[in-house]
C-alpha cells in the first residue's frame, strides 16, 4: 500500500492485482479463466433464450432459473472486463469512479443471485408441500413481484457503499487484492476512519447472503420434514430428486465464498496466488456451473435444447 501522506477523496487510482509471482505468464494463466467466462456467457445466454422461446418452460421453476441466468450474465459482465484488461493488456490502473461502479454491480448481482436461490428454495418447498395449490400460489404476477423485490433489495443494500466511499481518503495510488473492486478491499485501503463503512458492509451482507442462507436451510428443513411424512419410499425419492439441481447450485454458490473467507483468515499471505485464484473462481464458477447442472439434471431443458437443434437442422436442410 502507498503512503497516506498524499491522500485524496474520490480522485484516487487503484491498481488491479493478477497472480503474484506469475506476472510474466498472465497470458497463459488467463486462458482457462477466459474459457470459463465465454462458456458462462454462452451457457446462460442459451438458457435465457430457451426459456423465453419455449412455452413449455414458462413454469415457476424455469422462470426463476431465467432470473438466475440473467444475474449470472450480469456478474460476468461486471468482473470480466477488468480481468481481461489486466491479463491481456497488462493495464492495472482503474480510476475511483470506475472502481466504485464495478464494486456496486458485482455486489448487487451477487445479492440478486442469492435472492433468486432463496426464491427457488421456496418454489421447491411449495411444489412439495402444496402441489395442488402450486400454480395458484406461484402465479406470474407473484413471481414478477418477487423478482422486483430481489432487485430493489440488491440496489438499496449496495447504494450506500459507493456513496460512503466518496467521503473516505485514499492514497493517490492504492493496490487492490484482486483483478476487480470489492467493498471490503476498498475499505481496507482507506486512510481515514472506516467504522461506518465497515458497519454498513456487515449489515448489507447479513441482510442478504446471511439472511438468504439461513432461510434456504430453513426451507430445506421444512422440505425434509414434509418428505419424511410421505408414506411411499418411491414418492419420497421422487420429491427429493426435484431438489437436487437447486441444492447443487446452492452449494456451488456458497461453498467457494466460505472457502475464500477461510483462506483469507488463515493462509492468505502464505499462498497469495492461491488466494487470488480462489477470489477469481468464486465469482466465475457459479455462472459456469449453473447451466451445466440444469442441462444435466433437467429433462425439460435437455428436451428443449434438442428441439432447438433439430429445428436448426431442418432449417439448414
TrEMBL record:
Entries under CDD domains matching the protein: 7tmA_OR51-like
Bilayer topology: Multi-pass membrane protein
Gene Ontology, cellular component aspect: plasma membrane
Presence of the UniProt keyword Transmembrane helix in the record: yes
Keyword Transmembrane found: yes
Keywords: Cell membrane, G-protein coupled receptor, Membrane, Olfaction, Receptor, Sensory transduction, Transducer, Transmembrane, Transmembrane helix
Major place of residence: membrane
Subcellular location: Cell membrane; Membrane
Protein's GO biological process: cellular response to lipid
An example Gene Ontology molecular-function term: G protein-coupled receptor activity
SUPFAM superfamilies: Family A G protein-coupled receptor-like (SSF81321)
Its biological purpose: Putative odorant or sperm cell receptor.
Protein family (similarity comment): Belongs to the G-protein coupled receptor 1 family.
Protein's recorded name: Olfactory receptor
Species, as recorded: Ursus maritimus (Polar bear)
Protein encoded by which gene: LOC103677998
